[in-house]
């Protein structure tokens, strides 16, 4: 026998049914590879503070810490495996694991132009497929790299600089350039640079145009070499599944904050460069500005080796595709 519920009964049952739950606030955990005192961390902390202050009920970021929580060489693995959700720090630390980050080094324009040219999307697609990692932001534009030395270098008669055999700190992404200049590259984490300089493990560092004074390294460094080379490649990356699991509202809010702070990071680093100039000058760090031949030597050591090295890692076809994107960005 078929039973039919009365209209009143149906209304009563509907009233008793639980209402759909509103989307819960999401929390993304984060790790960083740069010491908290480093000037570059200002951009990250400002980003986290802004997200949390305005994202109540939508999205929050919980910073777990730095290398004291997860060693630097394991941090991107932790993101890839979902142990933590986000990573902030130099992309250069992980170019062997995620070689599609390499093209970032050749860009010389702010993040918005890189994004508009399609570099962000190209990297994101590639590292998602390779390691389940999403590329969110390039928070390292607005500053460059240069050499800092403990002892005065030899300047040749033609104006080129002799760095051959010098033990200079540099990451793996510096390999091709250092080999071109016959530098003995020493891989030292940023947090250990002070000790390495103090003990004479290195005779200099390849480092950013900002952040030296925050580490107190000017106590040992006496010379700063111009021209600069390379742009910073500090990035914000995340576990792809964690990002994809966010609701549309949460992802939209996150990207709104990302776009905002990419450019705030650029503005910040421009100001930090000016302040760094003053601090290092007061500390007695002397600038050595190379002439045309010396400048061309440093520039060529980076530019002429970069895409050759990139092609060896990425393959010629992929490297060429990335170069077209980077060239378009640099020319915009």
CATH superfamily of the largest domain: Bacterial extracellular solute-binding protein, family 7
Q: Please, what is the average pLDDT?
A: 91
Give the C-alpha Rg.
24 Å
Distance between the termini: 76 Å
Structural class designation: alpha/beta
* Sheet with most strands: 6 strands, mixed
- Uncertain regions spanning at least 5 consecutive residues: 1-22
Strand order in the largest sheet: 9-8-10-5-11-13
What's the number of structural domains? 2
SSE string: HEHEHEHHEEEEEHEHEEEHHEHH
User: In percent, how much strand structure appears in the residues?
Assistant: 15-25%
- CATH architecture grouping of the largest domain: 3-Layer(aba) Sandwich
**Helix content, binned percent:** 40-55%
Give a count of the beta strands, DSSP E runs of length 2 or more.
13
CATH topology of the largest domain: D-Maltodextrin-Binding Protein, domain 2
């Amino acid at each position: 026998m078929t039973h039919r519920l009365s209209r009143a009964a149906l209304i009563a049952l509907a009233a008793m049914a639980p209402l759909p739950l509103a989307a819960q606030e999401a929390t993304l955990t984060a790790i960083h590879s740069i010491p908290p005192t480093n000037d570059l961390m200002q951009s990250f902390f400002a980003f986290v503070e802004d997200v949390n202050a305005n994202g109540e009920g939508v999205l929050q970021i919980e910073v777990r810490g730095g290398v004291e929580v997860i060693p630097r060489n394991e941090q991107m693995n932790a993101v890839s495996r979902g142990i933590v959700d986000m990573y902030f720090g130099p992309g250069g630390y992980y170019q062997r694991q995620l070689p599609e980050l390499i093209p970032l080094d050749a860009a010389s324009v702010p993040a918005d132009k890189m994004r508009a040219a399609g570099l962000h999307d190209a990297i994101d697609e590639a590292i998602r497929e390779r390691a389940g990692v999403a590329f969110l932001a390039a928070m390292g534009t607005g500053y460059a790299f240069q050499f800092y030395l403990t002892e005065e270098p030899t300047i040749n008669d033609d104006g080129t600089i002799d760095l051959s055999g010098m033990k200079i700190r540099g990451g793996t992404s510096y390999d091709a350039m250092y080999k071109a200049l016959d530098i003995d590259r020493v891989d030292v984490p940023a947090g250990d640079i002070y000790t390495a300089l103090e003990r004479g493990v290195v005779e200099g560092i390849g480092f950013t145009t900002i952040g030296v004074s925050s580490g107190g390294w000017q106590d040992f460094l006496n010379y700063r070499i111009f021209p600069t080379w390379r742009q910073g490649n500090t990035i914000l990356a995340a576990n792809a599944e964690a990002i994809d699991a966010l609701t549309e509202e949460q992802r939209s809010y996150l990207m709104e904050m990302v776009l905002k702070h990419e450019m705030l990071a650029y503005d910040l680093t421009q100001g930090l460069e000016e302040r760094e100039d003053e601090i290092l000058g007061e500390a007695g760090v002397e600038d050595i500005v190379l002439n045309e031949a010396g400048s061309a030597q440093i520039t060529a050591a980076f530019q002429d080796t970069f895409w050759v090295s990139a092609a060896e890692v990425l393959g010629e076809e992929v490297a060429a595709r990335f170069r077209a994107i980077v060239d378009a960005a640099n020319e915009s």
